[in-house]
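I'd like us to work through together how a protein chain folds, taking it slowly. To get us started, please write out a protein record for me. Go ahead whenever you are ready, and we will take it from there:
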Amino acid sequence: MWEKVGKSGIKYIYLKEGVSNMTKLTGTFECKIDNKGRILLPSQLKKQLDGNLKDGFIIKRSVFQSCLELYPMVEWKSVMEKINSLNRFIKKNNDFIRIFSAGVRALDLDSNGRLLVPIDLITNINLKKNVVMASAINIVEIWDKDQYEKSINDKNIDFVKLTEQVMGNQNNELS
């Protein structure tokens, strides 16, 4: 990616061929995590992330779920732009930033295509040997397999009703 500022002062961003400024991921992958916290990135996921692998990742605790979130660096930069626009002289903004960024780490794939998940994050969400890497459009959620199964099969969530509430008004804003 490279930038150029035009005569009018408008900044143009050019993407290298094959690199998207918005990651769109698909798939759910069952993996193993070893005693050192290493997870082999599934080959299908690696293919989808190909243009982003060299830039690395950010891993953090999820705000809403008992899982970790793996951000390709391009996605993390987009999130950080939003966060950096918050006024730090407002206490709730400062509190949010501190809690949101707690435990955030930069990661790269090792020479064997593995991610080394920090032990404190593994402990925090209680990852065991069997994990699920689930795409969440532009990031990857990393779950303990049992927790993931409980989450997607939660009897307290009426998925039909949820789908209607979330997606039902996409083309009809007045309903």
Q: What stands out?
A: Residues 27-154 form a domain with the Chemotaxis protein chec fold (CATH 3.40.1550.20). Residues 73-84 form the longest helix (12 residues). The chain has a mean pLDDT of 86.
